[in-house]
Amino acid sequence: MRRSPFLTNLALFAVLLSQAALAPAGAQTRGRVSGGDAFEALPAYAQELTDAAPSAGNVRGDDGAGLRLVMRALARDGGRNNPLLVTEDLAAGGALVESLARRVAAGDVPAALRGKRIFRLDAGRLLSESGGAEFARRFDAMLREAARHEGRVLLFVENLDGLLSAREAAQARAALDSLAAAVGRGPVRLLATITPAAFELRLAQDERFKGRFQEVYLDRPESAQSDDEGESDAAADARPEADGFVGDKISPDLRAALNGAGASGRVPVILQGEDLKDGALREFLKSNGARVGASYAGLGAQSVEVPAGAVERLAELRGVSHVSLDGEVSALDDDGGHVSRTTGKEDVEDDEEVSPTGVVTYRKLDGRSIGIAVLDSGIYAAHRMFRGRDGRSRVVYSKDFTGENRTDDPYGHGTHVAGLAAGNGQIANGAYEGIAPEANIINLRVLNSKGTGKVSALLSALNWLLANRTLYNVRVVNVSLGASAANSYRNDPVCRAVRKLVDVGVVVAAAAGNDGKDARGRKVYGQIHSPGHEPSAITVGAANTFGTDTRADDGVASYSSRGPTRGSYLDAAGVRRYDNLVKPDLVAPGNKLVGARSQPNLLASLTPALSSNVSPAPDSNMMSMSGTSMATPVVAGSAALLLQVNPKLTPNMVKAMLMYTAQQLRGFNAFEQGAGQLNLAGAVTLAKLIRTDLSATTRVGTPVFMKSPPAPYTTIAGYTFPWSGGVIVGHTFATGYGLALYQKVYGLGTLMSDGITTADGVIMTDRAAWSSGVIMSDQILTSKGALMSDGVHFCAAGALLADGVLLSDGAIMGDGVIMGDGALLGDGALLGDSTRALLALLYGDPTAAMAVVRDSGVVNLNY
Fold first, then answer.
1. Distances from the Cα of 322 to the Cαs of 242, 298, 325, in angstroms?
2. Of 587, 634, 597, which Cα lies nearest the Cα of 420?
3. Three-class SS of residue 443?
4. 734 torsion bin: left (phi>0), alpha (psi -120 to 50), beta (else)
5. What is the pLDDT of residues 96-106, one digit of tens each?
6. What is the pLDDT of residues 481-506, one digit of tens each?
7. pTM to 2 decimals?
8. 540 touches 511 (CB < 8 A)
């Protein structure tokens, strides 16, 4: 009897159903192939969360600071990209990872996380259930399978405490060893939950996991959450550009050096990255005969000398974010009585305080208890200018970073700089008194006996400051030196180190440079040096006072470097993008200033005319020098006084007050003078009125003054002038009544340019960062000598804001030519710092200068 086709097909279907029912429960998952990825061990012993997550796109509730920090860590290319969820509530940690799985399944994650597979493993439970050798076999099988998928698997080890405290201690240790090895090699990516106690006792000091785990503390409030850079999530979101490296991973100056070096030649470089201890990187350096230099752990940088032919491959390695040339830095280029008078310091140094109960006390504004770090050619600490009123030396710490094993100043630059910032008034009846004559001085020698040094030495000093700033209450750093600014500030290792200091509350004053004109005396734009092109630094140009205390005749020194900044990078399309920031931020007296002379002194021996012959005693003699290197310590000392008046001021508030109260110099544009010439008397007046309860939680638009500020005018040496009323903010400047209200950019971890964007040539502000009443200019102006907003058109701000390619080297800019660092000048001569800046340092502008007063030998303590 023949069966009907229907019955035959029905019987076959029943057989297939019975076979499916007899299949092992996990077989479907183990045998599943998705996108070519076959899994066996992981689904057998762990649960896949992304597969179990709902595919619906509604993941609106899956947010919060913890989850955002987890995603940010996981999206990193190397380094601390394994989130460790530290919490007393381990269930909450598990819930967060489930939220992450839903986001991954919906594709609502950063591009680097799309397509990831998350597997949850309770290692403690697996150990207790299987135990012994079987546990080791299963655990290792999962790690091998995760490694084979090269980062596409995220292994969530739930309840790491259970593994750490397991009874089978030997097996638990072996599992932890395997985990450390797998994560250390890179392919295995990990999430884990752990209690704070277990983390501190068992993992925090485990060297194998340092640089791999990113702790995320779920029990802390959102405002306290931070990533491994110590920056709040909100602050990072506010300026995503500034945090990451951009463009070509090899700096422009290094590429230029490689073009001139044979494959067998060697080049000194600075590596930057989140994980410079990566095993593959170390092995690469070793196999290529690299000489590994100093490590700057706090800055995420390392100096290395490598074969030129290995640089391209080095830049491609995991954990390396940027490679730049370990180039040369050099001195770019200094009265006491004259400097104190013309800046207005003498008008405010006798300070009066009224307590809430009406008690009046008097004090000297002299920088007492404030530490000023001077990164330069060393300091002749025996000079009388560096004693306190008690006779003790105020050079409280000295350290050499040049390898010469000395901290004095045989070159003669650093002593002069330190005297302008913090020299006392004991010599010549106070004629050469510095701005902060009782401040403590931290002498960090980064320039050698010939006045030059290496970027690596400068990084070592900045790294030391980051670690030791609180020990000496360092609130101000003076950097009167410069290196090539060919590299964008986003990638420049020195700029990034400066940013770290500023973000923790240290004011950094940096010299603009002495390359404002070419060999024929023609104006040159675009010659701001590194780290002066770093936006968080206070970049200082040089003013010429013509030796008079009155400010009626002041101007910008002809050699003072002009903006815009010309640091650059190559984008993915090979297009060069320039930073084009408006710099300097302000100018200060810097032409032919008389200050402390070191003994011995290379500069004075080569150019005897520099000696002022103030005293026959080596510890009281003086010399004259010029340049932005001399102007910078005048601003650094001023910052110390503002911080003495109000220790709660952030670096951005110090910077804003110095710019807002500055005097606009008639006939000079913003690329030459920034916001104008330093007016210390006006800035101190404002600092006394600033509230001391301002913080990151202060609402934008809150008044910052305790009472109404005075009229915006200052009188110095009989000359009255208006304040500029503006501040430099990246590619433009801001004015308006809103500057007297609290702005988000006044806090720590921000740039003054944050929250400013442009669309179709229109400059716009983010109301979360800027309140109403702040006006962003669409033009760069040449001043009429009054308000910053009152001037003549020089160029459109849009040319700077657009895309960084509108202004090219050699373009005519107003009254000069724009040049990048190292550009060939019009007369065919390539003049670097060693020539052009040295001429400015030694001779300055050939004009009248401050008077030289001989020392009588009587010690003056009335300063």
1. 14, 16, 10
2. 634
3. strand
4. beta
5. 999 899 888 88
6. 988 888 999 999 999 999 999 999 99
7. 0.70
8. yes
